[in-house]
Write a structure and sequence with these properties.
By secondary structure, this protein is of the alpha+beta class. It folds into 2 domains: about 85-360, Beta-lactamase (3-Layer(aba) Sandwich), CATH 3.40.710; about 375-489, Tetratricopeptide repeat domain (Serine Threonine Protein Phosphatase 5, Tetratricopeptide repeat, Alpha Horseshoe), CATH 1.25.40.10. It has 20 helices and 17 strands. The strands form 5 sheets. An 8-stranded antiparallel beta sheet has the order 2-1-15-14-13-12-11-10, with helices on both faces. Strands 5-9-6 form a 3-stranded antiparallel beta sheet. The radius of gyration is 23 Å and the shape is globular. It starts with a helix and ends with a helix. The model is unreliable at about 1-25 (pLDDT under 50).
Length: about 500
């Protein structure tokens, strides 16, 4: 009877918290489920979600298949690769070592990795690496160069020397540029300081103490019960995501986890079991503005979110991740104890937007309906009537239902690359990229993509003009600069 009474009290408490968070008369679990099913119906979401209000779980559920070949469904304990959400764990390990006085945030990189090129290592600090302000080029900026590396395992020191040691793109500390190389290097620093592999340090200092038994460093060999398969969505249907050996993302993106384990992570971040309150304040302190009222801290993005239905704002701490076949997003509202975790194995949905919709529900509001991708009807029009019909269809839908379709520039860019990679469709890709830059004339990446398509078609003059425009809009675009130099040479 005592056990039953305790369980009943816990259930009543959870329901009370749920009702308070969602607003009078609203069932948050039911509203969240309906919203996520609408996201699924819009063909934008497939994965697992967990939501907590005031520290207590109010919703967790899986959507769609974890494995399409066998029809195995996603669930709250399905394991997904979390990509760049790994950076928050790497930051935590660094801050633990800072607190133990084994790492100095202002120390130079050369102090920990003597093999690193001295001219750069003597100018870049640990702080620069944590905040993406080092100026070291990100190895993921040049994926064509990475093609030969994605299948093979790399020892961290070898990978750092070969792929994370380019010439500085800017003076360290002078600007922000998201940089996977920086967090890869931090993993090597952790290994150098502890004398242990990153994977072991992570398990012993974070995963095991928190009971995150369904999380770890992803490797191709071990059999993982409940591991989701990753998929890419093409205009011809789903296909298996491309292979990548996880020694490449390493400390910048090699972890897998579940929404349930990430709830344990959130609860630890709310307390002091992993890090003192003083050290946590340093870790979450805004360090460099990245626009839109958001700053980058150490391994986290931080800012404020408007409280739905009020003039108030509340602190938000968040980060996303993306890796072949997988996407992830976590948002924490520490003042209220609210949490949204979304993991997917078909990375098509705007997970940050979905999290915002769920938070609207927690505050008793009705979120906007999910948007469909504009690319599917445009592609269908292209197949049926050619590039002119595709452009016409895009503009028709933009005019008749602008709120029903995702009109972000990345949508058309995605379609353009699909066509560019398809045989005999380069001319169609050029027309889609031209439409994109016409619709979004300030979108530097659109001109970069158009330049690539012109090069594929053998038109160097138009390629040069497009790359020059991309560089004008984004002077830090290393790919555009390299292509321009190659063309002019």
């Amino acid at each position: 009877m005592k056990k039953c009474s305790a369980a009943l009290v816990s259930l009543v408490l959870i329901l009370a918290l749920s009702a308070e968070a969602a607003g009078p008369g609203q069932d948050p679990a039911g509203a969240i489920d309906a919203y996520l099913r609408s996201c699924q119906d819009a063909q934008t979401f497939n994965g697992a979600v967990l939501v907590a209000a005031k520290g207590a779980v109010v919703f967790k559920k899986g959507y769609g298949p974890a494995n399409r070949e066998w029809g195995v469904p996603n669930a709250a304990d399905t394991k997904f690769r979390i990509g760049s959400m790994t950076k928050a764990f790497t930051s935590m390990l660094v801050m633990q070592l800072v607190e133990e006085k084994k790492i100095d945030l202002q120390a130079k990189l050369s102090a920990y990795l003597p093999f690193y090129r001295k001219d750069v290592g003597d100018r870049v600090t640990i702080h620069h690496l944590l905040t993406h302000t080092s100026g070291i080029p990100s190895y993921t900026d040049d994926m064509k160069r990475m093609e030969a590396a994605v299948r093979d395992p790399y020892p961290p020191s070898e990978f750092v020397a070969e792929y994370c040691s380019g010439d500085l793109q800017f003076e360290p500390g002078s600007r922000f540029r998201y940089d996977n190389s920086g967090y890869f290097i931090l993993g090597a620093v952790i290994e150098a300081v502890t004398g242990r592999p990153y994977e072991e340090v992570l398990r012993e200092r974070i995963l095991a103490p928190l009971g995150m038994k369904d999380s770890g460093y992803d490797r191709p060999g071990p059999i993982l019960a409940g591991r989701a398969s990753g998929y890419a969505v093409t205009f011809d249907g789903f296909e298996n995501a491309r292979y990548v050996n996880m020694s490449l993302p390493y400390a910048a993106g090699a972890l897998y986890s579940t929404v349930e384990d990430l709830y344990l992570w959130d609860r630890a971040l709310a307390g002091t079991s992993l890090l003192s309150a003083e050290a946590k304040a340093v870790m979450f302190k805004p360090q460099v503005s990245i626009g839109g009222g958001t700053s980058y801290a150490y391994g986290w993005m931080v800012g404020q979110r408007s409280v739905p239905g009020t003039p108030d704002k509340t602190a938000r701490i968040f980060h996303g991740g993306s890796i072949f076949g997988f996407g992830s997003f976590i948002e924490r509202l520490p003042g209220e104890g609210h949490l949204v975790v979304i993991l997917t194995n078909t990375p098509e949905a705007n997970l940050a937007e979905m999290a915002g919709g769920i938070i609207e529900i927690l505050y008793g509001r009705t979120p906007a309906r999910p948007k469909k991708s504009i690319t599917r009807p445009v592609y269908d029009a292209l197949v049926a009537g050619g590039p002119e019909a595709a452009v016409r269809r895009y503009r028709e839908l933009k005019g008749s239902d602008p709120d029903g379709y995702d009109l972000a520039p990345g949508e058309l860019n995605q379609l353009g690359y699909y066509l560019l990679n398809a045989k005999r469709m380069t001319a169609a890709a050029i027309e889609i990229f031209k439409l994109n830059v016409a619709e979004f004339p300030k979108y530097a990446n659109g001109y970069d993509s158009l330049g690539e398509a012109y090069l594929a078609a053998g038109d160097k003059a138009l390629a040069e003009a497009s790359y020059a425009k991309a560089l004008e809009l984004d002077p830090a675009n290393a790919n555009a600069a390299a292509k321009l130099a190659e063309i002019r040479k």
